[in-house]
Amino acid sequence: MITEIKAKGILNPVKQPDDWFGLKYNMNLYRGCQHRCIYCDSRSECYQIEDFDREVIVKINAVDLLADLLPRKRVKGTIGTGSMNDPYMPVEKKFNLTGRALEVIAKNRFPVHVLTKSDLVLKDLDTLEEISQVFASVSFTITTADDTLGKKLEPGAPPVSRRFAAIKKITDRGIHTGVLLMPVLPMIEDNAENILAIIRMAADHGASYILPSFGMTIRDRQRQYYYQQLDMHFPGLKEKYIRKFGRVYFAPADNANELYELTKQACREYGITLSMPKFTPEKITRKSPQLKLL
Q1: What is the DSSP letter of 212?
Q2: 32 lies in which domain range?
Q3: 68 lies in a domain?
């Protein structure tokens, strides 16, 4: 179900410093997400999205709000394209909110960091290339190198292989591009073979950075849904999670430290960094209008 609303605001400040993604502002053009990733933290009760997988809320006035707001901003900083959803889920094909918002960002010469699981971002490649004259980065969440496993974990998202292909196309346009290796699901993805395959494919397709986190959040409604999916796709695994993690907020991989060292060594060999380039926020100075002499 798609519901159109008029939002009151569109940019939220990000707590500084943001050492992971380099964001100054966060922009949610939609609420809810059609990618239906079985592990998504946004199902948690604290986010107050009642039907996360079935209802997508479209902020139909979002681009107008952004066009009004950016010229009045006093600090130029990187705008992130969503934390509660993917900016390039299928509904974007109809409404094009992300595409139009990027055009506003380009016009106002603000930097942007797109975080997505979808190669639909390629439709806005020309605009991103324009923004990259200031700063633009595109990061793809990739936590498995296997399309079959990826379809179980992220049933509504494009296959992993298409994301890697998109990395190559974006990199070829001179735009910073990398991989969000997070979350890495315990007992499913936290093995050396999977991690090394991702790093190798990221390097082959031109990714310049990988941001890893070995584990996952797991709380209230998110936990309930995730365990239902484990029963469906990985029989017997739910019981192992319950015994090991109980009701903790963060479930780390058993061998998280070893996997990080493995990642660090492999990335060094491939010339990939474990941090992304960032735009340093800067004050915007505007000339005061001169009064005409009569």
Answers
A1: E
A2: 2-278
A3: yes
Give me the phi and psi of 79, to 5 degrees please.
-100, 125
What is the SS3 assignment for 218-275?
CCHHHHHHHHHHHHHHCCCHHHHHHHHHCCCCEEECCCHHHHHHHHHHHHHHHCCECC
Indicate the DSSP class of residue 253. -
Give the chain's domain count. 1
Strands (E) across 50-100 are located at 56-59, 75-76, 79-80
Q: Tell me, what CATH number does 123's domain have? A: 3.20.20.70
Residues 6-22 pLDDT 10s: 999 999 999 999 999 99
86 within 8 A of 119, measured Cβ to Cβ: no
Beta pairing partners, 176: 137
Q: Look at the chain and count its residues.
A: 294
* pLDDT tens string 109-147: 999 999 999 999 999 999 999 999 999 999 999 999 999
Q: Does an H or E element contain 237, and which?
A: helix 237-245
- Would 283 be classed as within a structural domain? no
CA 7 to chain centre: 22
Instruction: Please check whether residue 190 lies inside any domain of the structure.
Output: yes
- Contacts of residue 127, defined as CB under 8 A and 6 or more positions apart, other chains included, come to 99, 102, 103, 106
Task: Write out the two tokens for 148.
Answer: 């079959």
Residue with tokens 């909110």: 97
Q: Please confirm whether the linkage preceding 183 is cis (ω < 30° from 0).
A: yes
Closest-CA residue to 13 (of 2, 31, 26): 26
Residues 6+ away with beta carbon under 8 Å from 248: 218
Residue 285 lies in a domain: no
